[in-house]
Amino acid sequence: MLRDGSLVLTATAIAPSLLMERQAFADNSANAVRIGLVTDLHYADKPPAGSRHYRETLDKLEAASQQFASDQPDFLVELGDLIDAADSVEVEQRYLKTINTNFAAICDERHYVLGNHCVDTLTKQEFLAGVEKEHSYYSFDREGIHFIVLDSCFRSDGKSYGRRNFHWTDANVSAEELEWLRGDLKSSSKPTVVFAHQRLDVSNHHGVKNNAEVRKAFEESGNVLAVFQGHSHQNDLKEIGGIHYCTLAAMVEGSGLQSNGYCVMDIQPDGTIKIAGFARQASYQWDV
Ligand SMILES: [Zn+2]
């Protein structure tokens, strides 16, 4: 009885403050935002290695593009590892050109998160030039929602990945980027969604080394609803500090269209998030 009683008390004590916070998000003038999401395409014109079927990514992306054509997302986000490694800069540039030509044909507005494989042989500047972007981390607003793209391709000493100068387990958000992130979060009161490649919710090899500091910035802002990430190739979902950390299935994994993975996400002005997953990608709905 006592235990039940204290549980009820806890629930009633927390609910009103959460409700007030979330109500502040509702913006009557805003529409839902629709986003097409893909991750870990690892496109390369080379034979399969283990469970990674590099060439099949072209057919899988074509299947995703048919779904996106009917769902009409406002923009696309690619969560990193768009390409896989080649022996030379020229060949890797060619992989990038091939996959990005197909990706760019799907939707005018596109956002690219840097993955470790994007900057294996290429430098960050070369990759960004290839996808017509200037910055590796930045933020933008759509329909009352704040979006942040993060870059965790920095070594512990702060140096950017590129030209095989790093070990993939040494992933970090640089001190400069962390300072920018804190300021960016402070300057916005909108519900916020973050896109990352390496994981911000685990402390194993797939985790960003200083991810506790990044999560602290998210939690202190009180506005971050969800973080979407790739890198470990399997569906996963964790909730830390009231924030959903959702890891998406990799497009490169497995042979055949039944192994594909991509999703369409709707974010309502009140912060409700609905994710329709296709093939191996899981579906989710998170109410406010
Ligand atoms: Zn990957």
Task: List the defining traits of the structure above.
288 residues, alpha/beta, six-stranded mixed beta sheet, binds zinc ion
3D architecture notes:
- It is a single chain.
- It contains six helices and twelve strands.
- The strands form two sheets. Strands 3-2-1-10-11-12 form a six-stranded mixed β-sheet, with helices on one face. A six-stranded mixed β-sheet has the order 4-5-6-7-9-8, with helices on one face.
- Helix 5 links the parallel strand 5 and strand 6.
- The longest helix is centred in the N-terminal third of the chain and has 22 residues.
- The two termini are 30 Å apart.
- Zinc ion binds next to loops.
Alpha carbon gyration radius: 19 Å
| Small molecules in complex | zinc ion
Approximately how much beta-strand content do the residues carry?
Answer: 15-25%
**Series of H and E elements:** HEHEHEHEEHEHEEEEEE
Helix content: 25-40%
The biggest sheet amounts to: 6 strands, mixed
The shape is globular
**Order of strands across the biggest sheet?**
3-2-1-10-11-12
Low-pLDDT stretches are 1-23
The helix-and-strand class reads alpha/beta
Quote the distance from N terminus to C terminus: 30 Å
Tally of helical runs: 6
Which assembly state applies to the chains in this document? single chain
What is the number of E strands? Answer: 12
Please state the average pLDDT score.
92
